[in-house]
Amino acid sequence: MNIDCIGDVHGCYEELVLLLKKLGYQKSNTSFAHPHGRKLAFVGDLTDRGPHSLKVIKLVYSLVKDDQAYYVPGNHCDKLYRFFLGRNVQQKHGLETTVAELNNVSKEEYSQIRKMFLFLVEKSPLYHVLDSGNLVIAHAGIQAKDIGQTNKRVKTFVLYGDITGETNPDGTPVRRDWSKSYNGRAVVVYGHTPVKEPRFLNHTVNIDTGCVFGGKLTALRYPEMTTVQVPSSMPYVEEKFRSFT
């Protein structure tokens, strides 16, 4: 099984297309396909903060629909999903940029994008277990003991990471470094926490290299375990990247 895992896109459509081409994917109607049959896997957080969230939704929808990609939702995806359901969600931490895009399209296009996004979230699992259990795609990660479970506690972990219940000065939740104690045999590929370079630790790989904050958009090639990157066109925001000791 040959898979190219893509880190958090956050509306960075141009970088996503560049990365797909760099990986060898070729345009096919509204989608992309790889000449050697490789498939994509998105770790979630397709939208918010970046300039082209709606284009990203349309492209990933086409990829998943054409069986060219796997997708799992991230916390931003979950929030947009609840917004589309009419729930009372706060339009901040990036959602406001996606809503602004939605406010500038016709009712017909809004309805189309809403259907696409609901399809993505409702037809995808919380996390993917692939390659006979050797590969797990989970937005914020997952503990080895929880692989195979889908309860509320696991959902919170997969979407938000190992949160403590406390908040940082910028309003983001305080998260423990769960990968330090990961002891599973499966490789867990995740994003959620922006890092300057892909972080390999204990059979886990964080591939959110902060494209929307001026970093890079990263793909992890599996099973090769090599990375491919394109630079971001966004302004660099140093404080958004986490460093580990």
UniProtKB/TrEMBL annotation:
Asymmetrically hydrolyzes Ap4p to yield AMP and ATP. GO terms for molecular function: bis(5'-nucleosyl)-tetraphosphatase (asymmetrical) activity; GTP binding; nickel cation binding; phosphatase activity. Pfam families: Metallophos (PF00149). One of its GO terms (cellular component) is cytoplasm. Its cofactor is Ni(2+). The lineage of its organism: Bacteria, Bacillati, Bacillota, Bacilli, Bacillales. Belongs to the PrpE family. This is Bis(5'-nucleosyl)-tetraphosphatase PrpE [asymmetrical]. CDD domains: MPP_Prp_like. Keywords: GTP-binding, Hydrolase, Nickel, Nucleotide-binding. Its EC number is 3.6.1.17. PANTHER family: BIS(5'-NUCLEOSYL)-TETRAPHOSPHATASE PRPE [ASYMMETRICAL], METALLOPHOSPHOESTERASE. It comes from the Bacteria. The keyword Chloroplast does not apply. Coiled coil: none annotated. It comes from Alkalihalophilus pseudofirmus (strain ATCC BAA-2126 / JCM 17055 / OF4) (Bacillus pseudofirmus). It catalyses: P(1),P(4)-bis(5'-guanosyl) tetraphosphate + H2O = GMP + GTP + 2 H(+). Residues 1-195 form the Calcineurin-like phosphoesterase domain.
